[in-house]
Design goal:
Blueprint (H helix, E strand, L loop, with lengths): L1 E2 L7 E3 L5 E3 L14 H13 L5 E2 H12 L11 H15 L3 E6 L4 H9 L4 E5 L12 E9 L4 E6 L2 E6 H7 L4 E8 L1
Helix pairs in contact: 1-2
Length: 183
């Protein structure tokens, strides 16, 4: 089993002192629709740059900044839009970020990223009826049980296990994997 080493970096504390892990796309203002890609990017960039733990207000301010680079279109945020967002964000923020991606979703790609202590963005085009996955949705992979072909995901502050092997077998369109790391 492989998991991120410093998951506490993603801790967010709200005004009442309640802690969550990562951001939630529903924290954005109402005009920010289909924000799962921007939320996933925010979680990953927060982890890679060890910007947390922090308050919900601080995290939401960062999420709003990231949203400007990962703004979805009518059908959400495609892989190309996610990759463009990484490039634009890195250039304009003058930070050393690079990305690696694959459309051939594989446990090997996930393992290599997690072994490098880097979360993975997963674009799910079709969920294939697998629990905890939704069509046309981005989530953050934070752990891997390769023997049982399961991944641990962070999705809108919720951590859960997903039967990745079942998803690979059942999903018609599958999706993509993206790893964002320091360059």
């Amino acid at each position: 089993m492989i998991e991120l080493k410093s998951l506490e970096v993603l801790n967010v504390t709200d005004e009442q002192g309640m802690k969550t892990v990562g951001g939630n796309q529903y924290w954005y203002p109402r005009n920010a629709k289909r924000a799962c890609g921007a939320t996933t990017a925010s979680n990953i960039l927060t982890y890679v740059y060890k910007m947390g733990p922090r308050s919900k207000e601080e995290h939401l301010d960062f999420m709003k900044k990231v949203y400007m680079y990962f703004t979805p279109g009518i059908f959400g945020l495609w892989l190309s839009g996610f990759l463009k967002g990484i490039g634009k964000f890195a250039k304009e923020q003058e930070i050393p970020v690079s990305s690696n991606h694959t459309k051939a979703t594989s446990l090997g790609f996930i393992r290599a990223s997690l072994e490098a202590d880097t979360p993975v963005a997963l674009l799910v085009l079709t969920a294939g009826g697998v629990a905890n996955l939704y069509n046309w949705h981005w989530v953050t992979i934070i752990g891997l049980d390769e023997e049982n072909k399961r991944v641990k995901i962070l999705d809108n502050t919720r951590i859960s296990w997903v039967e990745f092997g079942d998803w690979l077998e059942r999903s018609l369109l599958r999706g993509a994997l993206v790893s964002i790391c320091l360059s």
